[in-house]
Amino acid sequence: MTTPEKPKTEAPKEPKKMNGAEALIRCLENFGVEYIFGLSGGAAIPIFDALVGSKIKLILVRHEQGGTHMADGYARATGKPGVALVTSGPGATNTVTGIMTSHMDSVPIIVLTGQTITAMLGKDAFQEADIFGVTMPVVKHSYLVKKTNDIPRVIKEAWHICQTGRPGPVLVDLPKDITSAPFTGDTLDPEMDIPGYKVPGKPSKKDLIKFANAFKGSKKPLLLIGHGAVISHAGKAVKRLAEKLHAPVTNTLLGKGAFAETHPLSLGMLGMHGTAYANKAVINCDLICSIGSRWDDRINGNNAEFCVNAKKLHIEVDPAEINKIVKPDAYIIGSAREVVEELIDYVEPLDTKEWIEELAYYRKQWPLKYSHDKGLTAQYVIHECYKVTQGKAIVTTDVGQHQMWAAQFYLTDYCDNWITSGGAGTMGFGFPAAIGAQFGRPKDLVVAIVGDGGFQMTLYELATVFVNKLPVKVLIIDNKYLGMVRQWQELFFDNRLSGVDLEGNPNFVKLAESYGIKGFHIHKVEHCHDVMTEAMNYPGPAVIWAEVIKEDNVFPMIPAGKSAYHMIIEPPPQTQKLEKPTGST
Amino acid sequence: MTDSTQKSKDTHILSMLVANKPGVLVRVALVFARRGFNIDSLVVSASINPKYSRMTITAKGDLATLDQIIKNLNKLVDVLHASEHDPTHSIDHELALIKVKATPASKTAVVKHSKKYHAKIVDVTDNALIIAQSGVTEELDEFENLMRKYGVIEMVRSGKLLMAQGKEAT
Prior knowledge:
CATH superfamily of the largest domain in chain B: ACT domain
Oligomer: heterodimer
Number of domains of chain A: 3
Number of helices of chain A: 23
Strand content of chain B: 35-45%
Radius of gyration of chain B: 18 Å
Helix content of chain B: 25-40%
Number of strands of chain A: 18
CATH topology of the largest domain in chain A: Rossmann fold
CATH superfamily of the largest domain in chain A: Thiamin diphosphate (ThDP)-binding fold, Pyr/PP domains
Number of helices of chain B: 5
């Protein structure tokens, strides 16, 4: 008896034909992308299809804004680009806030948007939005892909552009017929074609010597550390420079961590809600050197009165920042780390003994402080969080009072551990950014310090946390107000409160529990420490609802549009009427 | 300072070499618009390499903002270079088409003036002439003013084209 011959299943292996979407995902895999934060829809289905069986893990988010903030948080925590994937139309427009947030803070993200088929472009097709046009003012660069075989080059360029020079978001709009069509190109690693793209090189020795000479003779120097120092990982170099010069260091909100805030030379954050001693240093210094800061209006206030008697030096990766706000006496173009590493050899130690003593006096005279007189304060809750986590957590925030208090009371000594929406001031950023950070650094403790207002803008991502079993801790500072606006209305608008009362807040513990997440509640000074300790040591995700006193203000404060001379260090007497601020926002 | 010298001092001519890609014009225009800078004229044309296009932009405004604009234009990935050119080291040229009323009485005078300004009459109908003139902007302005006396019906001007002299690249 013979057995029928089995049909030959092992045909000679030909490389499997890819479509555009598969080529796209293969390219991203080759770049080492670990996660894509995505939400699907009709025009993006081919791309989601290509993700089945991919090495890249798709994280299904609950809203596209959350997805882009996750990509952003992932990028800031790891230094690698974050990738978001959404569909066309509303899916795409929902990413605009996230893209703008990354753009303002120079964060490398790639946003892939599905698009209607090319034949329907411009014809008001279902879910068609001109996202290429909509996002143009808030991207570093963008593409509308018109040929399937262009996909590998576009992705390679996007990957390169988003993270070199001054990083920023790149959007790639992908029509559905382009991702569905067969990819017939020769290679997934083609040459880039971006002759107009310029990345600054290393500074020349001549420029370094000239720049280093500008420090000579300064008796009251001040180093101003910005986000550029964080992005370029200039931490070690900045420490060596500061110690060699004996120069005190202040940091911007986004520069937190590039120079250890517990270092004796650190004055902490400067600016609108910076420490009094950092702002006194700004007033009294004879030289200020920005290392990767863009002299933001939250620092300068009134440019005409900013460091009038000080020599101004600027280390900057983006030539367009030179002379934009401050006209520097000397500047040097390059990445903060590369410049500072080289600069160290050319500078000489300065005699700053008296200056350091003067600053020590300010520090003693006007320390950051809070009291328990009126009950549980946000400052105390955040300070406890700092103590319990020994300052080692990755902290993300939204924008507003809680953000400023977190900046003041959660000191950080580590680059990449402080993730906040600085330039854009985006409410709802902190929580999804924490999710992205936790994906990027699974072993680190991640705490999102958020306000009750901001949290409610992106809280739907609790589901994402639950599904992925991420041990993110969400510390909600609930004062039942949009607190920063309330503070301005109290101080500058005769306490005429308008649109700030968050009446109707939920019970955040029950809310968390309904998502299957453990909730903790802090509402008294006495048990704050114990609950915080338990919550921060809880192995899974946790929401910590801290109900703090409703009416409290952030001090010190420099009213918008004013210089550090007008700093209000202590709460003014109720009878004193303050002028309305003239600065931008 | 007279009005005309003030005008020329505030007027800047930028020339750019850009990638010949969709959207590049919008990106360039946004750099101006965001800063409230009005563009007086803009010429986009081919360059000797079909991959790139030339743009010549004339705009009025303060120097500090202009400096920011040039830097931000250079920052655009699709821009190979953008620079302002010193009028003493560059040649600029412009083209105008002017439709002038032509009555039997005025025709002779219009033709005479056109000759003097090296302008060409390119179309003649019963009651109008179309005159093409090319030259430096100031000459075009003068001729335009002269023609207004006879009744200008319509006018189209190309905006300035600029090229750096000698070895300097535009």
